[in-house]
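assembly run, all chains below
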Amino acid sequence: MKLKFGVVVFPGSNCDHDAYYVTKKLLDQESEFLWHKEKDLKNSDVIILPGGFSYGDYLRTGAIARFSPIMESVIKFANSGGIVLGICNGFQILLEAGLLPGVLLKNESTKFICKDVFLKIQSKNTSFTAFVEKDVLQISIAHGDGNYFADEKTLAELKNNDQIVFQYCNRKGDVDSESNPNGSLMNIAGITNKERNILGMMPHPERCSDKILGNTDGIELFNSLIKYLTN
Amino acid sequence: MYKATVIVKKRVKILDPQGKAVEQGAKLLGFNDISKTRIGKYIEFFVNTTDFETAKNEVIAYSEKLLVNPNMEDFEYSLEKAE
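ok done. output:
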């Protein structure tokens, strides 16, 4: 059985083709682009909100994309238990849509950061991480606004409900301030919702999935998802 | 018709690295008395109504729904009659 991935395309998305390539060509699943002005999710099993600069990041990252017609359907889909993955700008859109708590501020350094980082898988209780054997993944980030912030109450809830999925760490898996690239509270790189069907993450697993690029840690997340949903 | 101006400010608890960077520029230029620089947004637009209360309610609703993210920002607005 093949899964069907729907990759939403907003004006300014620029990682949509990478997400399509990974799901269709590398994972050999069905995949289809979903234009933001449409409302039809075309029977997708999984929705990906890709990285990029939707609406030029004007006003706030993800703030305008969040009101695109397709998002009405994505929100309904997510609220009824559908699997949604938001990568980078996709994560920012999920936060603006209120599907995940908190906000992503400008990086503490004010610089756009593009480099490989190490991620500690803090929770394997998600479809994307359940079958990943490694505890630390090397995945690239590329963002100017990835500095995760939430009030203390929200942070405590995230922690108590095991909603923190990825934290920036060093090669050995130690979560320390030196490994925090952007100032995120608690080194947060990715979180899930209470129901665990929505994942938002700043790092780009789709950019390190193809062997030809020298690092395939990213594809482990997609492999885990497929195993989880097809078993 | 009313002209609205909305000023969006980062909440006090939110760090403002842009403000900090700009302030470093101020120090380089010798403006040593400058402190606590915060960068926000200024947004202006017109509201097509002759009723003040309607204009006010629309500005607040619009700000809360789109212009401002309450997780990190507060806002102030003003309204003036326009031709």
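The two ends of chain B are 6 Å apart (CA to CA).

The interface with chain A takes residues 14-15, 17-18, 20-21, 41, 66-67, 69, 71-72 of chain B (CB under 8 Å).

not gonna interpret more than that til we talk
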